[in-house]
Structure prediction request, 1122 residues.
Amino acid sequence: MLKYIGKRILLFFPTMIVITLIGFVIAINAPGDPVERMMTSAQSGGEIGTNSVSQIENKKFWQHKLGLDLPVFYFSLTKLSYPDTLYRVFDRQENEGLSRLLDQYGNWKEISDYYLALGRFQKLLSAFKLGAFTLSAEYDKNVVSENLNTIKFEAIALRSSYNDNIINAKFNTINNLMADHVFFAEFKDELKKVKAKYNEVKTKSTGWRNYIPALYFYGNNQYHRWLFGDGEFSKGLVRFDFGMSYTTKDKVTKKIADSLPWSLFFSMLSVLLSYFISIPLGVRAAQKRGGRFDRISSLLLYALYSMPGFFVALLLMVFFTNPDFLDIFPTQGVKPAEGYPDDASFFQKVGISLPYIVLPLIAYTYHSFAYLSRTMRTSMLEVVNMDYIRTARAKGLPEKKVIWKHAFRNSLLPLITLFANVFPAAIGGSIIIETIFTIPGMGQAVFASIAEKDFPVIIAVLTISGVLTLIGYLVSDILYAMADPRIKYS
Amino acid sequence: MFAYILSKKNLEIIYNYIFAIPVFRAKNSFRLMKFKAFLKANAIIPALLLFTASSCGGDKPKSGDKKNNWKTDNTVVYHVIGDVDEMHPTNGTSAQRQEIMLYTQVFLIQTNYPNPSEPYLYFAKSGPVISEDGLNYSYELRTDLKFDDGSPITAEDLVFTYKANKCQLVNNPHAKPYLDHLKTIIVDPTDKNKVTLVMKDRYIQNLWFVTDYPIMQRKFFDPDNVLSKYPFEQLDDKNFIGDKNKDLKDWATSFNDPKFSNNIEFLAGAGPYKIEKWDRGQSITLVKKKNHWTAARGGLYEDAYPDKIIMKISKDPTATKLEFKKQVYDASAYLDIKTLAELQADDEFNKNYSSEFTPTYNFNYIGMNLKPDNRHKKFFTDKLVRRAMALLVPRDDINLIVNKNKYKKIIGPVHPSKPEYNSELKLIEYNVEEAKKLLAQAGWKDTDGDNILDKVIDGEKVQFQFKLNYMTTTTSWADMAKLTAESMLKAGVKAELNPLEFGVQIESCKNHDFDMYIAAWASASVPEDFTQIWHTSSWASKGSNYVGFGNSETDALIDSIKYAIEDSKRIPMVKRLQAIIYEEQPYVFLYAQMRRIAIHNRFDNREMYAEKPGLLLNRLKLNTGSAKPSAE
Prediction:
């Protein structure tokens, strides 16, 4: 047994690497940009001047500072046509555009030259001195400005375009504008160069490179920083540091430590309650199979099972916390708004919080009753038909002893399997119930982190959930062996 | 007991709390009646649940039976819908943080709620005196303001504040653009209580940007006076690399430390309140400082009537409603529309609370892609089509169903209460027939008899079928989208509903990757700079002109408006801009939002404002005769 546990623990490490990596990649590739989110001020109601030069520089600065401009992992398996530096194009649309061009033409050198030429063209557009030009020439400043902006937009759109028809259409738009307005003459040469570079992309196609795989290695990558720290915001996972939350700018571990106790409290208490109630229910239903108790309990439990959590939570709230109806519990929170009295002892605090806990606990728990008791019932039914139970009865043992001493232990295995899921569920919390009852648990924290693109928190929760799942299955295996001595792991 | 539970009134209550579905109510009242009947007939399960619990708990008197049940403590329990991200004086972006800052911090000037066109002089004693070229804003500073350690607030602290906010290494990327127009700050060498903010250009918001920066104590946040070595101009230089200066880097690391964000011992501020307790996800408690300088002075922000302000979080509208009925809360500016409308129908609530739907400067709109690239079809490039869309949006129905008829219909981006509002422009009312005519004029006809209009565009037959994006943040967006799509179908326009997560919608808008979307913009009473949303430069650089509106005339107007400090010059230009936007109809303008405020009658000074956050909690004065409901 010990050898088995040792083996399983050793297996944790490769499994953990895979789990953390999958979690990491999913979180990093989720839509939305965390830096953009950090720069979005609530007071502006949306966002502010994202077009300003300082804002763009600011964004680059923070992307670099947080390591978001690094490759994701130690290596990438890709096509020979792809360069090992494509990750540096941080704008997702542009990155996607370049990738699609590579898929079509397979010639990074030409594509890169075209991309750089486009950059130079854009730089020239930006450097265009509107005021000085329009003062010396007899053109309407606003007409110049409007057309310049159209050209700028087409140039930006070209950076993420990959369809030949679209690219040509955009070149034509720019050409026509330049032909119509002589004040854009100074851009013509640069535009010609861009078009020439694009033609080179098409004529010097090396599509065969797309069929040869390539492997690139990256010493400094986001995953590495996450594991071993970045020297500024995180000491790394190896030192049990999950980094800094982008929203609270505090340690992720602190954020989790603040929220986890409430989720753990409710889920553990809920597990205890549900097992404590469901097991006797299931056993009794099996004992009286087809009887009135079995039928009524099935009906009621399935009725409960079919009701969604938010509905039951609201129902409980409306029934039991309503001055128009029954006002016997506080509506939400886990303690009074004023907090506990300064001199309250632990037990006094528990006493104060107890009324706050009742309804959320019911909402957390009721759902498990049907599932657990039905599982227990089925399992027990299988066992009570076994020969050894018949023998026990034939020996004249009292029914109570037959059920609880001989049958019960052997019918526990399916419940033990379910028990493995308790641990990860604890960290996930319940978003809906926690929101309705304003419980500061993990459910709310995770939901807020997803909405805020707070990747370090999301990745940390995914990782911890993974670890807890592994622990849950290990505990289940140990419990199997304890419940049924016939199970050997050697 | 059982009969009581199943009484008609109680079932009505349950229905109203849980089952009321607004869209159903207006559109399918017959179906809804059947649903209610079904509910009554099938109430056995909830009733059984109730029976179990109520047999243990027993009935309590309804609040309506109670008299003189107002709380008498001088604590305001304030309803909020979210937690603060961090309370760092420069870092952090949440709306709640900004609200708390009003009570815990001091600003050079701040919004003057009763008269928002004039600044409230807070640290400033007088000013600003604006130079003739409109670039220098000079203030005389007060000398009686003190930090909590007793030391006076000085010009040095003010200079430090702007430098710290400007420093590249400080973790406040959201706040830096507001300082883009500031060139430097000069303290008068002959009088340390006079400062001049030197601006780079004449910009209409040069006066107001300072309201975003609370004044920080230099001695507390920069004991080694590191920032004094770096002039503001140097920190503003884009070629200056902060990381290369060790002392600056070390200072920034220590300044960004989470302790200044989350540890209440380090949440320093010179305002009349301080944070006493912060239960993450639950509440934040502010307590009035003892023997504070504000007590001698008094004023809009200096007044500190409540001893405590508890900001208690409740995100669920049902829970919030119940807590208001139980008088747990004393005030809110965040009630949802349905909740306040329902509470206002309750006599007991009206006896206990003063409540109003007050105007805000925020508005809802439907944006259309005026300049689609080849990813999207040219549905809305013709202004006849855009006008038809405006005629097809059932704003009255949406307002009734989603907004309980509380929001105000608008014609453009300027709030009707502002002096620059163009009142000559008439509301565009719902008219399907007129919309059909306009669409036909624009060449959209149903040639294949499938009830969807079509047109040949660039040689290709295109069905008038597109995606209508909306956010999943609240259900009201979905309701608006459904009602709009349903109405458009009557004219042969098929809008497919496309719910998107908030961040994804913003990203798609910035990338011009949409046909039509529903969203909102926030604004304020201060003179507006229209560049961000309406200038073509904001379209070309993936800014906030998502729809691609603009031409040389509007650009010229916007450029002139933002530098027109005098109202006499600015207002006619803003009116002209509104007329062009109205004519071009790049948005279907829906409503000016209303803020939902409730304040308990046990407090006096129940003032409600259009400007955020809508009320000032420090001004709520406990009504000493509050043992019974007032006559109001």
Notes: The mean pLDDT of chain B is 86.
